[in-house]
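Technical annex B. To support the medicinal chemistry partners, we prepared a structural model of the target in complex with iron/sulfur cluster, based solely on the information shown next.
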Amino acid sequence: MPIDLELLHTKLEDLRIKYDHLQYLDTDPICFPKKYKDPLDIEVVSFISCLYAYGNVKSIQGFLKPIFEALGPSPYQTLRGGNKTLLPFLKNLNVYRFQTKKDNQIFFQTISRILQNLQTQSPLFESNLLDEFGKFNEKNSLPKFQNFWEEEIKKTSGKKTLSYGLQFLIGKSTAKSPKKRLSLFLRWMVRTSYPDFGLYQRIYPNQIPFPLDVHIQKLIQILGITDRKTFGSKEAFLIQEFFKKINPNDPLLYDFYLTRVGIIERCNAKYQKVVCEVCFLKEVCLVFGSATGN
Ligand code: SF4
């Protein structure tokens, strides 16, 4: 059955209005960069937060909170300060899931070195995402960005290859994966409206691949947007194209709000009476429709 775009748009707007409040930021890693005012801090904290944004919200926050506390009022300045300011911080770093303590130390040493070599002006990393004509390129920009970090991390570690943990953190430039954590970072940096920061001016909101995290992957299936079972970079752009039918200039507008259905409402893509009966998306949800005959 074709999707009723008008009805879907109405329900997405209802969802947006419901979750358009600061209190819901605590359920998302964007709560970390939201604490800062200086664009340099926002960009650095966003990048770190997005890379470690895998696993459940509690474990992400449990790992990142002490890191940003230890980096003080300006993580950018602390990291840029070099080894003197950094040594106690590096010593106290913990492991996080696939990253060993050593991986995390290498990663933060790399960021520190890069920040020391960059001009002190915002934005810091946007130019690494642009091609020779100064444009964002759907196919090459994210792999190029990953390559840049891979090479810099290798310089820090002195090794020819990345450890499993560091490779996972940056992602493989050649992999056809949806690159969801970097897409999320782009969303935060490029979109200008809530809850994002709009620091990057040379990349446009309608160019960013949709960040296909597990919640979005489930939702786009049960909303009938796709019947694909595997999700790669191709699908990230296909889903972006779909949402352009609703918002041509800002297809990622509903990303934050849709993920709240999984994170806060605990949608598991199966009919659960208590959850589904009060869900704002029930009228456009295939699972709800087939369970209730509506
Ligand atoms: S109706 Fe239920 S299954 Fe459908 S989106 Fe809402 S919570 Fe998820």
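Notes passed to the chemistry partners:
The chain has two domains: 1-27+209-294, 32-204.
The CA atoms of residues 93 and 104 lie 7 Å apart.
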